[in-house]
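Appendix B, record 7
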Amino acid sequence: MLLKSATDPSDGSSCVLTFDEVNQWLRATWKGFVDTGEATKGADSYLTSMQTFSCPYLLNDNSQLVGPWFDSIEWLQRIWGPQASRLGLRYVAHVTHRLRSELAVLDKHHPFQDQFEVQLFETVAAAEDWLRSCQKR
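Structure tokens (predicted):
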């Protein structure tokens, strides 16, 4: 079920937020070159949707991003993360568009450990498998 779709007319980059009714999780799919402003708007749209679809599972698919990854870990940790946690988020499957070594900040520092569990994946299929295993906990 489509919840929100935003496309930047200048370059075609986009964020699409859906509720997967079969798997019972939210899915954010990012495409193209997403700048910090677009990333912030997309993250805020997720919070708005969580008020209606309180769901502990998020599949955050960055596999189709081009260019730098959203680099505001501090904003995500201090502002977005606590709000998402209060709204019920417990598990985030993050599919990267880069090698895991380039996202070492998430693996090494665990910026969300007090808020929710984040796991990094190279494929959507692996992320989906992990979220399914979380649903059985």
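Remarks on this record: The beta strands are 2-7, 14-20, 25-32, 57-65, 91-95, 117-121. The chain has a mean pLDDT of 85.
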